[in-house]
Amino acid sequence: MSAPELRIGIKNDQRSFRPGETLRGAAGWQWDQAPESAEVRLYWRTEGKGVPDVSVVAVVPFEQLAARDARPFEFRLPEGPYSFSGRLISLIWGVELVLKPGAHAARVEFNLSPTGEEILLHR
Amino acid sequence: MLARENPFASHRLHGLRFRLPGVDWAGLERRWHELGRRAAIVGPEGSGKTTLLEEWRQRLEAAGWRVRLWRLTRERRRPDRARRPAFWTVPAADELILLDGAEQLSWWAWRAWLRRMRPAHGIVVTTHRPGRLPTLLECRTTPALLDELVAELLGGSSPAVRRLNRRWFRRHEGNLRLVLRAWYDLCARRPFPPVVSCPASPAAGQKAVCDRKVA
Q1: CATH assignment at residue A95
Q2: pLDDT at B201
Q3: CB-based contact (8 Å) between A12 and chain B?
């Protein structure tokens, strides 16, 4: 069985969001079989020196899946945490499409903060 | 340099593949079967045991096995209270049990745990010293291995990088984890490390960020 082709995008390719705004997008896939499950997850994760942390904030599961499919999704974004970066840690928001079996995934990341930009702790 | 750009950030280190010394995966698994599927990966701290075990877990799960992985450290010598009963639960005959840090269990706890795990299809543990189970593989580090890993993370190498590797390899007595942390700190302080080129941020992988359910 070959690996699926996955696509996920945010409407208008927007990468800056403020707390409480709605993120809209679409996810699609093409496989040689209908997946057992498909969902889009809204998450944040950390990168840096320490043990990476991750939190899945919300999930949109899809039903009645076809081998070739495309679905819209939307999330109302929470108040935080804000996207930020320092020397020791970065916090990154994203949405990812996950197909099973095999946990195939594609993701796109964005900034969430009062200004819509990543908050930089060091320059 | 920002954390997300740091070539030595932990998510980049997790992406490094274990370099099997003088054996391939098929050979390693064959030897494990010859040892009755009860065996230990032995090596000092920072020699790649955890990386190897994690990679093996992924291979076993991809092959359809049910795998239980436990990780004990000096800071956390027992599983969380909530997960402790599962740690001691007798496994099914089609389960594989992986224990990272077997030396953290007292001799008595180890014997009791091993007895309870007896029905499992297979057991692999990591430990600093041989003796708990027959040794499957000894993990060792070398300056050449360090050069290779650092070059992969930096997207290149240079004499200055290799000199620094030698110095830190000696200072940390071959503990690659500590050497790579030292590299992280250096990159965090400087805009670019002393290399031929600075790599771009890693591309988004095809692996799910998290299998955890909604928090």
Answers
A1: 2.60.40.640
A2: 42
A3: no
Q: Does B210 touch chain A (CB under 8 A)?
A: yes
Q: Where do runs of H (alpha helix) occur along chain A?
A: none
DSSP SS3 for A35: coil
pLDDT at B190 over 90: no
Q: Does A106 touch chain B (CB under 8 A)?
A: yes
Tokens describing residue B187: 């990159």
Chain B interface mutation, best of A88, A110, A118, A120, highest count of B Cβ atoms under 10 Å: A88
A:B CB pairs within 8 Å: 88
Q: Which residue of A has its CA nearest to B62?
A: A102
Q: E strands along chain A, which residues?
A: 5-10, 16-17, 22-30, 37-48, 54-62, 68-76, 84-85, 89-100, 104-112, 119-120
Length of chain B: 215
Q: Does B188 touch chain A (CB under 8 A)?
A: yes
B215 three-class SS: coil
Torsion sign, CA atoms B175, B176, B181, B182: positive
The region of weakest confidence among A63-67, B82-86, B158-162, B194-198 is B194-198
Q: What's B93's domain CATH number?
A: 3.40.50.300
Starting at the earlier edge strand, list the strands of the sheet with A5-10.
A5-10, A22-30, A68-76
**Residue B206 forms part of a structural domain:** no
List the structure tokens of A50. 């320490």
Residue B213, domain member (yes or no):
no
